[in-house]
Structures are given as structure tokens and as C-alpha cells.
Amino acid sequence: MSPLFKGARGIEFPIASILICFNSLEDPAVWSALVDGLFSGVSIGSVLLLSALGLAIVFGLMGVINMAHGELMMLGAYTTVLVQGSLKGTPLFEGYIFVALIAAFVVTALFGLFLERTVIRYLYGRPLETLLATWGVSLMLQQFVRSVSWQFVIGTTIAVALFLVASLGLNRIPFKFRNLSKAGIGLVAGTIALQVSNALGTMYGLAMTKPWFGAQNQDVTAPQWLRGGLKLGFVDNVQFSYVRIFIVFLTVICLAAVYFFLNRTQWGLRIRAVTQNRSMSSCLGIPTDRVDALTFAVGSGLAGIAGCAVSLLGSVGPNTGQNYIIDTFMVVVVGGVGNLVGSVVAALVIGMSSYLYGTFAGQIGFIQDLSKTIGIDLGAQTMAKVVVFALIVVFLQFKPGGLFPQKGRTVDA
Amino acid sequence: MNNKFGRREFLLFGSTMAGSLLLKSCATAPTPTTGASTAPGSSSTASAPAAGDVIKVGILHSLTGTMAISEKSVVDAENLAIDEINAAGGVLGKKIQAITEDGQSDWPTFAEKAKKLIDQDKVATVFGCWTSASRKAVLPVFESKKHLLWYPVQYEGQECSNNVFYTGAAPNQQIEPSVDWLMEKYKDKEFFLVGSDYVFPRTANLIIKAQLAAKGGKSVGEDYIPLGVNEVKPVIAKIKAALPNGGVIYNTLNGDTNVAFFKEMQASGMGADKYPVMSVSIAEEEVQAIGVEYLKGHFAAWNYFQTVENPASKKFVAAFKAKYGEKRVVNDPMEAAYIMVHMWANAVKKAGKADDLDAVKKAAYGATFDAPEGPVTMNANHHLSKYVRIGEVVEGGLFKVVYETKEAVKPLPWNQFVAETKGFACDYSDPAKGGKFKAA
Amino acid sequence: MQTLAKKPPVNSTLPKRSRSRLLIETAIVIAIAIAMMTIVPGVLNAIGQSFRVGLLGRFMALAIAALGIDLIWGYTGILSLGHGLFFALGGYSLAMFLQLQPALGGTGIQMPDFFVLYGVTSLPWLWQPFESLPFTMIAIVLIPTIVAAVLGYLVFRNRIRGVYFSILTQAALIVFFNFFNGQQKLINGTNGLKTDTTYLFGQVMSGPVMQANFYYLTIVLLALAYALCRWLTSGKFGQLLVAIRDDEPRVRFTGYDPTVFKVLVFAVSAGLAGIAGALYTVQSGIITPKAMDIAFSIEMVIWVAVGGRGTLVGAVLGTLIVNFARSLLSEQYPAFWLFFQGALFLAVVTVLPDGFVGWFKTSGVELLRQLSGKSKVSTYPSLANNPDVTYEQQAIDDRKSDG
User: Fold this and answer.
1) In this predicted structure, what is the pLDDT of residue C120?
2) A193-214: per-residue pLDDT in tens?
3) What pLDDT was estimated at residue C91?
């Protein structure tokens, strides 16, 4: 088997099922199923791609395994909720989604910047440590949206401010047990903040203690012009949802923007230089520190845009991010780390095959027979993910570097 | 090196502090207008009066993880009921003190926390659980320790434990009447059954199919989506293929999947006129989370809707909004949770002591409570007689009640449409009968 | 493999001093085990915390899995984020056997409840082997081991390492998670399999007699697992593992085939996770696909990280500390404990990269000396203060972080 064919193992299945469809092209129902299937596959793929785009930058270029990527998407989705709420009733409402996209990008990029400055930058070159640390961040973010309230925000601010001021002061005097004293200051600052926020809670009651979001899901309703779908004249009963068309366009725009940014701008050049050789770039006067921060911020911002987009399709809640994290990693790994084209192909193939398997596997005679023989229901919805992921594992056996592996000797992270 | 270490220090203390001490502040913050409810239970232990003056009860729900979306509001309703009882002087002259535990959406953790509540905190009873899986996980704990659990959610039936009181609907109080109603309203339409992939939808669909077969309806397909999955395109495609000219969709999806499902329905041009959806897991809170625009014209079957008109309902809604904010809504599981706390308190008052569970159980049999849904009665089979209602989602995100039973429907925990349990019943008031006996 | 055969028995190469050390260590382990069996439950019961005995038993079962993780991550440098898979396979094996046990006084095989519910009348082939106790006992270890060996062989053969391996293990985990979650009729899907109402040898599984036995069994097996890992990591095999961790290409150039060793150690670690899963299942009374949740597998790694990777004691201690902390904190702050867990992850990675035990070994001893008024110890005091040396050190650190 030539390497080319070996690599094609992952897409064997969709081709096979499309061929099955071609056998009965005269039937209009099959036509509509085919057109619908193609569109659905592309749209599922573009959701995957949009979610994975930020990760492709953060993981592909910086080698940071950002397990909080899904939670950054969640932040973007919550930003959308807030924007939607604040524009409700104003003439701008119909266009709120554009405001939300920008807001989501800015909010998550800023948060990404904060994350990079406080945590990630101490962990460069240790990808596994970034994985564990960002997992911690993701847990805290999930709980944050559940329990954030004015009381919480004020309490946290007071404690952090007190601690920072006190420890800055402490740093000026030479002192033997600095660590222990800082722990002590932390305790004191915490206690003061606790008393203050308790007092606030007592004084203002519900206004202070009511959570902003709570544990419940939030609602994001598409603006009027994004509801419903586009009917096609030449096939019956097929409707392309406007939201999904919108997401496909958004994905293309983001992709083009990222490509332009990386390949046609000064900062993009710097980012690529630092990715390839940090010490050399540093020697040539590139501010590697700022490049790192910028790259991470851009990657996070893209997650925010993705979060805003998926909020039009699914739920917005504390668990939103968890649904995407593994899928997006698969897209990046299958595509080949550090390769945008690879991510595009991988996202489309994964999206298409999971849609086709989920929709048609239960109806294919061979799979029904096989299910009966081995006593396992292979046609179940759940099995789409099982099969697609199993194929990914198999595929990576043949192409460990993904579809488009990085060239050169330093592929290993 | 020194400088770098300093920043690490900052991380350590910064995170432990932001993470720990400050959260403590919120955890212990009392909410004065409302009592100690938003403060998790154990934090109030410190300030609680001596153990002799209070009756401890356990609240065991998921506050974190995937189920927190639904269960957190039930905790709110339980705390509201406890506050009401305490404001009215408590039970047997003692205040009720709630000890809240987080089941973490993880079934073994539910069992662990149940043991802790019973063995260490020595609670008088436990209110808790949402999913059937969590209930089944804690069941052996309650049975082996001869303790008592109150369970507030509609479920698939096929269970009747002596150590559980079920205040949610049994299938014959929610699913079966709604199917009858649909068959009446959409006489010639076919059904498609869609649900999450776990025990409740599977059992529910088993019942619905048997019911349709017995009464001349037709189901053209069923499909299951894994819990927590947000990509529903394949299912929509299947429904369209099976029901090209419209039909009734019976929806037993749970949680987040519903949001994606209804958004995708609308985007695919499947409106409520052609594809009416009957849901059994969508209540007021879910409507808020999905968006009214996507749900208008679809139906839900419950025992209680916020729009039910009677004094008890009005009082419940007003009290809840006063405690948790104007924007919050109440729903059926919250009402069931509210009922069960009151029914327990009434049973304890009648029995005269909180720790003699047999006496409490006996006192509960036949007890009635003027619930927001109407007067409900606890049966000897540990289930409530409840009113059945069907609501249509209307502008504003509430339900318009389009059907309701005149009387409370008696619960049948063992399903009469399932061959294995046909003819069985449950009666704990008569020791000779017990949890599963063949009714004459 | 030849290298293995050539390896002389470890003990005979040990000088006399190490041998006596080994004896002391054995004695300490046995003493701790006996204390855990006798004194600890008594003390916990006396202070009214008797349900914590059950928790302790469960956490010690988890510690067995943590030992396995330490073996592959701490010593060999392979980070598996899919160990929940092996844990669950062990748990499911035992649970399937227990589900088939007849009710008290009954004989033969009983069909599990959920089969009746879903109308399954004959036992699926997947279940049939689990009628036999000996098969089940072997399966608990062997099924995870084989799955790990196959997966490991495929992956390591292709020299997939580091991050890619971790992500692949997650993909494998997702495959099994969805499979177990989706097969309602076969293995009861999300609800999982319950073991606590089953009768075995005339005793109910959740009863005090059985639970006490499992508690003792867990301690014994934990001690044995510790001994196994201790044996594996000492001597030449252990050195080889560490060599693979530190520089795999160099090991390969020296003439060893790292694949064999990696597969072997990965399989052993999976077997340990399987045992842990089985013991955990019978003590918590239920096994669900949640054990194959991504979060659980990542938590396992955190236990080891907190205790100290590369030290076996650290893995065990870390497991107990993290789990008891989690248990206590979630009781104290049911709505907020997730913050603590997140903060713990962050703090361990950034401030205590070597975990508690690692920290104690390096800075802790130093701190104790300082506290007791003794001066700082440096190997080469003049070098440590030489600015040129510190500059070079910094440069090396920077180069490392280039990845």
C-alpha cells in the first residue's frame, strides 16, 4: 500500500456511503438527502473548524495545550448573552450578533492575555504542565460563571488588592520568612474581604448576592434575519439554515483573516519567526515576550468568536465548553500540528463522516446485519463518535504527524 | 532567579487566595432578607444553635457538573420551603437546619454523600437526587440504613422502594395522558420518538410504543442522542426522512441537547404547525434557556405550570420571586421539591417525632397537602396523586394550560403497558403486600 | 528482550547497606499496612467518622491506580490521559460478574435487572465468560493489560510521544466512553452497573462484613502494588525507564528498543488501574461510564503531581491528600469547592512542580534546617554565588523552554 492510500484510511467511509447514494440518483429523495448531507457535513465541519482555529494557533504555533479553550469559548458565549441583553429593545438589536462577535473577541483576548501573563508564560516548553494548569483554569472558569455575583466580584477585588499592596511592601524589607508571612497576609486579606463582602451582602441583600448567571443555561436567540432557512428550488424538503450559512461564512472570514495576519503582517512574521527559532528571533531583536502574549491573545480571541457562533446553535451554560474541547484537539492533531490547511481538511472530513455515520449507518444493511451478529447496536447515534474517533486513532497509526506533518527534524513537542 | 521565584509565589498565594479565602466569603455570606438559604448548609453549622434545638435534614443534589443546570433550582425551592416552615415556628418547636451536599453529577459521589448525611450528620431525612441513575445509586444506602429519601422528579417508574417517597410524576401521570391527548388532537398523524440515551427516555418510549400499539397510533421511528451532545443534525435529518409531511415528535431529550434540538428544528423549517413537539423535560426554566422564539406553539406535559391559577400557586410564585429575584421562574420539579419538604414536615408533626421513620412514613400515608398544583395526596405506594396538565409555550416564556385533569390522577409505579410489570402494584400500608405484588 | 534476560537478579547486586535499607523499608510498609488495618478504623470510629473508613478504602484503591500512573509518567515520562479507561474496564469486569450472581439462596445465573427492562432474554456473548469467578479475577487484570498493550504497541511503534500520545489516549478514552454510554441494552449505558445489592458467599456486598474484607484486601493489594512498582523502578529496569524519560533517542542509539519497555510498563500500569477499578467499584457500589470521563483521568494525573511524580510514596500520599481534601472541601463549600480544585491544579504545576514529596526532599529539608537556625547548605558555595554561573544556568533554562 502506498503511503498516499494509507493516509486516506480516515475518509474511506464517507466516500463509500456517497457511492451508495449515487446508485439511486433518479430518486429525488436521494438527491435531497445528498444535497442536505453535503451541506450539513460542511456546516458541522465549519463549526469544528471555527472552534479549532484558536487552538490551532495556541497549540500548533506555541505548543501550549490549552484545556481551557472550551471555557474561553464559553466566555465568548456568555459575552454574547450580555450583549444581547443590553441591546434588547434598541434599534441595534437586529445587528447585535456583530457587536457580540467583536465583544466576544475582545473579552476573551483580554482574558487570554491575562492568562498568558500570569500562568502560561512560566510553562513554555512544558506542554504537559500547560495541560494540567489550564485544566485547573477551566474548572475555575466553569465555577466562576455559576457563582459570580457582585458580592463575589467585590470580595475578590478587595482581597487581591490588599494582598498585592501588602506583599509589595513586604518585598522592600529584607526579611527571613517571607513566604510564611505572605501566607499570613493572604489569610488576613481573605478575612477582611470576607467580612466586607458579608457586610455588603447584609446591607444590600439580593442585589449583592444574586448570581449574575447562576447554574442555569442562558438563552441566545438569533436575530430575526438569521432565523429559518434558505429553501432550494431544485430539491424538495431541503432547507439550509441561515445560522449555519452564517457560520460557514464566518469561518471562511476568520480563516482568511488568520492567514492574512500570519503571512502578510509584521507581527505575523514575528510570530512565525519565534515559533521556528526563539533564541535566534530574540537575537534579531524580536520581542519574544510580547509575541507570545499576542499569539495567545489572538488564539483566545478566536475561541471567543467561536463561542459566540456556537451560542446560535446550542446551549450556553457552564458546561458549554466541555463539549468542544476533545473534538477540537482531534481536528488539530489529525490536520497536522501547526498547519492551517490540515485543520481545514481535518475538520471537514471529521464533520462530514460523523454526520453521515450518524444519519445513515442505521439504515445500511451491512451494518444492521453486523449489529445483529455481534449483539452490539452499531447504528446507534452514540456509535458515530465511537467509529469516528476509532478511525482517528487508526489513522494516526499510519500518519502520526497528521495529514500534513510538519517538516524538519524538530517535530517533537 | 530570585525575581522569577517571586512571581511564582504570587501565583501560589494569588491562586490559593482568590481560590479559597474569597470563596469562603461568598460561601458563608448570609443573605439577610432570606435567611441562610443561599449559604451552603454546613457553613451555617458554625453559627447554628446547639444540636438539640434543630432538626437536621439533608439536601443532596448536583451543584457542580452537568446536572447542576437543573438541580440547583430544586435546591432553591427546597430552601424556600424550609424557610417557610421555620418562619412558621419550625417543626415540633424546633427549627429545621438544612445540610447541603454536592453530588457532583457523579453517581458514586451521591452514594458517598448520602452515607455521610446519614451516618455523620444524623439527618432526619434527605431531600435529593434528580437523575434515575443517582437515585438508583443512593437507593441501597437508604435501604440498608433504613433511612428515608424524598425524590422530586418525574421518572420512568418501575420502582417502589419502602425508603423513598416519590413526589414527581409516575409515567401514568405525565407520559400516558399526554400521548392520549396527542392522539386525540392529531388523529391521523404519525409519531417520532426522540430522546437522550439513558434509562428514562428508553423506558418512556417503550411505554409510548406499547400505548400507541394498543390504541391504534403509529410510531415511525425512534432515535437517541447521547447525553450532553450538541450536534443534532443527524436526528433532524432522520425525522425529516421519516415524517416528510409532518407529524408529532415526542421529545424525551434531557438537558443541553434540547437547546440545539429546537434551534435546529426551526432552522430546518420544521415549525410547530407541521411538527408539534411534546416534551416532558422542558419546563419554564428550560424555556428561558432555549429562547421562547424557538419554542412557541410546542407543548409540554407536567403536573404544574407557573401559570396555574390558584391561591397556593400564587403564594408559591410570589415567595420564590421575593427570595431569589423577579426574573426567576418556577417549574414542576421545583414545585414537587417544595411539596415534599412541606409533606415531610407535616408528617413529622403528625407523628410527633422526627427520628422514628416508620411513624413518619405511616403519618405520610393518606396525608394531603394544598400544593400549588392543587390538593395532592400521598398514597400508600409512596407516590403522590397528582394533577396532569398540558401546556403550550406562549409569548413571554410561560405556558398556557391547554388541558388539565379535573381530579388528581392516582399513581401507578409499576407500568401497566410493560408486559413484565402488568398487573403489579405497590402498597406499604399493608405489610402483606409490600413493594411489588400481583394485584387481583 | 535480551537485555532483560541478561539482567541479574536485583538483590544480589545490592551492596549490604542497600539490602538492610530494603529490609527497613519493607518493615515500614508492613507496619503502616497493619496500622491502617487496625488502628486507623478504630480511631475514625471513635471520633464519629466511621463513614470515612469506607472513603479511605476507596481512596487507597485509587492510590493503586496512581502508582501505575507514576510508573509511566513519573519514571518513564509517558503521560496517559486515558487511564480511566483501564480503571473502568477492571471495574466493569467485576461488576458484570457480580450482576450475574443469584439472589440469596438462589442458584445458577441471574439475569441483571436492566435486561428484563429492555426485553433482553438471553445472555449476550460478551457477558457469558463473566459467569465464572476465576475468569473474572484474571480478566480484571488481563483485559486492561491487553487493551493497553495493543494500544501502546501501535502508538509507541510509530514513535508517537509526548503530547500526541496524551491526546491519543484521550481519543481512545472517548471511544470507550461513548461505547459504554451508548449501549443501553448491553451494559446499561449511563446508569452503569450496580454491585452493592449482590450477594456473594452469602454476604451482601454493601454489608459491613464484605466492606471490611474489601478494606483489608485493598490495603494488602496496595502494599503489593507498591512492592511491584518499587521492584520495577529499582535496578536496571528502573534506570532504563528513567533513561527513556530523559532521553529516548539516546536509549535507542545505545542499542535498546524503548518500544518494548514502554509497552511493558504501560501494560503493567493499566493492569494496576484495572485492579484499582475493581476494588473501587465494590467499595462504592456502582461503576458507570463516568469513570471514563476525561476529567477523572486528568484528576488521576493530578494526584501523582501533587504527591510528587517519580516518587512512589508521593503517588500514594498525593491520592489520599487530594481526595480527602476534595471530600472535605465539597462538604464544607458544596457550591464552591471547584475553585479549590482548580487552584490546586494551578498551584501544583506552577509552584510545586515536584509535588509535596519532591518539595520536601529539596526545599523542605532546607527549610527545616533554616527554621532550626542552621545555615544554608550548598554543595559548592562559591559557585552558587558566582554571577557567571547563575547567568549560564539561566541561559540553559531559556534554551530548555524553547521546546
Assistant:
1) 76
2) 778 877 877 777 777 778 888 7
3) 94
Dist CA A76 CA A80 (whole Å) = 6
Give the angle subtended at the CA of A339 by the CAs of A336 and A340, to the nearest 5°: 120
What is the pTM assigned to this prediction?
Answer: 0.85
DSSP A252: H
Residue in chain B lying closest to C290 (CA): B106
- Give C-chain residues touching A127 at CB under 8 angstroms: 162-163, 403
DSSP per-residue codes, B72-100: HHHHHHHHHHHHHHHHTT-BTTBEEEEEE
Q: Please answer whether residues A75 and A81 qualify as being in contact, where contact means their C-beta atoms are separated by less than 8 angstroms.
A: no
Instruction: Give φ, ψ of B335 to 5 degrees.
Output: -65, -45
CA distance linking residue B259 with residue A311, whole number of Å: 10
Q: What is the pLDDT of residue A405?
A: 77
d(CA C204, CA C216): 17
User: For chain B, what is the mean pLDDT?
Assistant: 83
Report the C-alpha gap between B237 and B234 in whole angstroms. Answer: 5
Domain ranges of chain A: 19-148+211-412
Portion of chain C with pLDDT greater than 70, in percent: 87
Protein fold of A19-148+211-412: ABC transporter involved in vitamin B12 uptake, BtuC (1.10.3470)
pLDDT of residue A23: 55
SS3 content of chain C, % helix, strand, coil (to 5): 75, 0, 20
The per-residue pLDDT for A252 is 94
Q: Cell 490546586, residue?
A: C344
Contacts of A197 (CB under 8 A, 6+ apart): A151, A152, A154, A155, A158, A208, B22, B25, B26, B29
Q: What is the number of other CB atoms lying within 10 angstroms of the CB of residue C15?
A: 8
Better pLDDT: B94 or C390: B94
Q: Residue C309, SS3?
A: coil
Closest of B19, B5, B92, B97 to residue B51, by C-alpha: B97
Q: Point out the residue among A155, A219, A381 whose CB comes nearest to the CB of B226.
A: A381
E-only strand ranges, B188-340: 191-196, 219-225, 248-252, 277-279, 299-302
**SS3 (DSSP) at A150:** helix
Buried b (16+ CB within 10 A) or exposed e, A221-241: bbbeebbbbeeeeebebbbbb
Choose among A326, A382, A392: nearest Cβ to C294.
Answer: A326
- Find where cell 517571586 sits: B6
Do residues C373 and B31 make contact, with C-beta atoms less than 8 angstroms apart? no
- C178 to chain B, any CB pair closer than 8 A? The answer is yes
> Tell me, what amino acid is at C158?
N
CA A92-A95-A98 angle, 5° bins: 120
When pLDDT is averaged across residues B160-165 and rounded to a whole number, the result is 91
Closest chain B residue to the Cα of A245, Cα to Cα: B267
B residues 277-296 closer than 8 Å to C (CB): none
Q: Report the pLDDT value the prediction gives residue A15, as an integer from 0 to 100.
A: 53
Say how far apart CA A321 and CA C48 lie, in whole Å: 41
The residue to which cell 391559577 is assigned: B309
A–B interface: beta-carbon pairs under 8 A:
228
Do residue C400 and residue A143 have CB atoms under 8 angstroms apart? no
Residue reference for cell 545490592: C14
The strand ranges marked E within B92-148 are 95-102, 126-128
The C-alpha atoms of residue B23 and residue C45 are separated, in whole angstroms, by 32
Distance, CA of C285 to CA of C197 (rounded, Å): 8
Domain boundaries, chain C: 15-46, 50-402
- Does A135 touch chain C if contact means CB atoms closer than 8 Å? yes
Q: What is the tens place of the pLDDT at every residue in A228-277?
A: 777 776 666 677 888 889 999 999 999 999 999 988 999 999 988 888 88
Residue C385 is predicted with a pLDDT of 65
